[in-house]
């Protein structure tokens, strides 16, 4: 279960160029999907961090939301019931019942198969399956991922950032990317030197930084991405939601929801999106296949893997 802060500080879902970039991932969803209709409902509204958390939870469970009570939605998002009421009012409704009626009218759907018989571990798996379905809807329009692939392939070197919970996502991407990209630089440890490493990448010719940003979102990640943009880098971010705090410091944000049903978040969808980005990057690296074949030849000569 994520434990993000719930302060009622006003922020905007979309702010200028960064907001438009953050919305690029959500625009990729099928226009007829419940998730896409929810995204369209939220965009353009000024929401607090708590309200953005509710919005994220609703998008992640778009098929179920029209059937949830305000108490159930509050439990799903990890917020208070009054916060759900204030959220509905912020969207222009008289209260949550009016919002739920609206959702049933514009996004009719049969309630998903009863999961009451599932134990908590099965429910966590089912939630991840739903996250992957949502990711598949987003990828119905491949253009944002293809654009990201071109940016990553063109950056020499390519810095890849991921701190704390996102460090493993960044490491996995960098490990495979290094097999086809001539210069990948992993930034998975924070501290005072991270700006120095970004400066070094820029001096060496980097044009794009890829970031993985997952809950809970470290302040250092937001600050680092802001610094990277100031240094002239284009920031491509894989985040858990288009409403994530890193949206305002990203040029292109690709959302992939995390699972929150267990004590620690699960990140199957962000990992898969990272592999999709690798594929898109390979498509824009003309010598990617040659590099892979060379690696396989060397690995065989060294007896690197047990066949």
Low-confidence stretches: 1-30
Largest pleated sheet: 5 strands, parallel
According to DSSP, the number of beta strands is 7
Tally the helices.
13
Note down, in words, how this protein is organized.
The chain has about 300 residues and is of the alpha/beta class. It has helices spanning about 15-25, 35-40, 50-60, 70-75, 80-90, 95-105, 120-140, 145-155, 165-175, 195-205, 220-230, 270-285, 290-300, and strands at about 10, 45, 160, 185, 210-215, 235-240, 250-255. A five-stranded parallel β-sheet has the order 4-3-5-6-7, with helices on both faces. A two-stranded antiparallel sheet has the order 1-2. Strand 5 (about 210-215), helix 11 (about 220-230) and strand 6 (about 235-240) form a beta-alpha-beta unit. Helix 3 (about 50-60) packs across helix 4, helix 4 (about 70-75) packs across helix 5 (about 80-90) and helix 8 crosses helix 12. It starts with 10 loop residues before the first strand and ends in a 5-residue tail after the last helix.
Map the helices and strands:
Elements: E1 11-12, H1 16-27, H2 34-42, E2 46-47, H3 49-60, H4 70-77, H5 81-90, H6 96-106, H7 120-138, H8 143-154, E3 158-162, H9 167-177, E4 184-187, H10 194-203, E5 208-213, H11 219-230, E6 234-239, E7 252-255, H12 268-283, H13 288-302
Parallel strand pairs: 3-4, 3-5, 5-6, 6-7
Antiparallel strand pairs: 1-2
């Amino acid at each position: 279960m994520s434990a993000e802060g719930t302060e009622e500080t006003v922020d905007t879902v979309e702010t200028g160029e960064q907001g438009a970039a953050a919305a690029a991932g959500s625009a990729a969803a099928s226009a007829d999907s419940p998730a896409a209709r929810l995204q369209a409902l939220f965009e353009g509204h000024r929401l607090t961090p708590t309200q953005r958390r509710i919005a994220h939870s609703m998008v992640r469970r778009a098929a179920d939301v029209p059937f949830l009570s305000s108490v159930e939605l509050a439990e799903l998002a990890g917020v208070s019931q009054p916060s759900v009421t204030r959220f509905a009012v912020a969207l222009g409704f008289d209260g949550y019942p009016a919002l739920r009626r609206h959702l049933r009218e514009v996004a009719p759907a049969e309630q998903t198969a009863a999961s009451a018989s599932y134990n908590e571990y099965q429910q966590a798996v089912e939630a991840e399956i739903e996250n992957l379905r949502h990711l598949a809807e987003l990828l119905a329009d491949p253009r944002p991922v293809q654009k990201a692939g071109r940016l990553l392939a063109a950056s020499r070197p390519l810095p890849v950032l991921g701190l704390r919970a996102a460090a493993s996502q960044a490491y996995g991407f960098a490990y495979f990317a290094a097999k086809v990209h001539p210069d990948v630089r992993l930034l998975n440890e924070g501290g005072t030197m991270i700006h120095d490493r970004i400066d070094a990448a820029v001096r060496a010719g980097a044009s794009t930084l890829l970031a993985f940003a997952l809950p809970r979102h470290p302040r250092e990640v937001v600050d680092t991405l802001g610094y990277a943009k100031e240094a002239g880098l284009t920031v491509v971010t894989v985040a858990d939601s288009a409403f994530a705090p890193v949206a305002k410091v990203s040029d292109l944000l690709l959302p992939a929801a995390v699972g929150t049903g267990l004590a620690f978040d699960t990140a199957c969808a962000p990992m898969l999106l990272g592999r999709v980005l690798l594929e898109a990057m390979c498509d824009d690296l003309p010598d990617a296949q040659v590099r892979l074949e060379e690696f396989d030849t060397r690995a065989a000569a060294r007896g690197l893997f047990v066949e």
